[in-house]
Amino acid sequence: MSELAVVFGGSRGIGRAVSQLLAARGHRVAVVSRHLEAAQAAVATLAGGEHVALGCDVSREQEVQEAFQSIQKTCGNLRYLVNAAGVNRDGLLLRAAQGDMVSVLHTNLLGTMLTCRAALRSMLHKQGGAIVNIGSVVGQKGHAGQCVYSASKAGLEGFTRSLAREVASRRIRVNLLAPGYIRTDMTAGLKEAELVRGVPLGRFGEPEEVAQAVLFLLETPYVTGQVLLVDGGLQLAM
Question: Which residues are catalytic, by number?
Answer without folding.
Answer: 149
